[in-house]
Specification:
The structure is a single chain. By secondary structure, the chain is α/β, with parallel strands linked by helices. It has one domain (7-242): Rossmann fold (3-Layer(aba) Sandwich). The chain has twelve helices and five strands. The protein has a five-stranded parallel sheet, with helices on both faces. The longest helix is centred in the middle third of the chain and has 21 residues, at 146-166.
């Protein structure tokens, strides 16, 4: 049975691979938002989510849940689908931005991607990806090097391959180097959208939006707007979420 509209898309990828900016661009669509890394699917069931730290402790504050009762409802949910529905309906953050569905951005899912996709039938997954050299360099700057880095990288690649074999129609990979080349994303200026580096980023996200709309025909994805590349739309939502 496919998920309902509570969860529209999952965004994942290695840590420091560009998952944050990719999810922000997707969340520029009026109907969708995600307050912070969720991590619900790292537990076999919502009742086991209490063991998944720090995600369980993050959820009430980062998603602006109104008191302990709301968090307890998620912990007691019968299944992941029910838990997402509660989160969508209880999160003050999602209410403030007028979200009709949510995005779950959790980099840690990349290591168990096939299992995550198996537990969320019908939900599309967008994976942020850099070249191996760039990814290892990003980790090295943060103290992850040598065998540890290669082991981590190999585990993610293996899970991605399993997911791509089992669910090819629901998996989309985005080269985040293409996004980094657009100066408007750094400056926030609409005038920078005409720069050469923004053409590929614009085409990539327009294609992602068209692809996502196939899975959620009742959601108001609308057309991709190049001005989303300035991240102004997402920043306005983030401000509303924190009020």
């Amino acid at each position: 049975m496919p998920f309902d509209a509570s969860l529209s898309v999952i965004v994942t990828g290695f840590e420091n691979s560009g998952t944050t900016v990719l999810s922000q661009l997707i969340m520029s669509s009026p109907h969708i938002f995600g307050a912070f890394e969720c991590g619900l699917l790292l537990a076999c069931s919502p009742r086991e989510f209490t063991r998944v730290q720090p995600f369980h402790n993050w959820l009430p504050q980062r998603w602006r849940l109104p008191g302990r009762d709301a968090a307890a409802q998620i912990d007691k949910a019968a299944c992941h689908q029910h838990a997402y529905s509660i989160l969508l309906n209880q999160s003050l953050c999602l209410q403030r931005v007028g979200a009709k569905s949510l995005l779950d951005k959790t980099p840690a899912y990349v290591y168990v991607l096939d299992e995550v996709m198996r537990s969320t039938p019908g939900v599309p997954v967008v994976v942020a990806q850099k070249s191996q050299a760039s990814q290892l360099h990003s980790w090295a700057k943060r103290g992850v090097r040598g065998d540890e880095a290669f082991k981590r990288y190999g585990a993610g690649v293996a899970a991605h391959k399993r997911a791509a074999t089992a669910f090819p129609e629901r998996l989309r990979t985005v080269d985040t180097h293409l996004l980094e080349a657009c100066p408007a994303m750094r400056s926030g200026n609409v005038s920078d959208l005409s720069a050469e580096g923004c053409a590929a980023a614009n085409a990539t996200l327009a294609s992602v939006y068209r692809w996502l709309s196939r899975f959620d025909p009742h959601a108001a994805w609308g057309a991709w707007d190049a001005r989303y590349l300035t991240l102004a739309t997402h920043k306005a939502k983030a401000v509303a979420c924190k009020r």
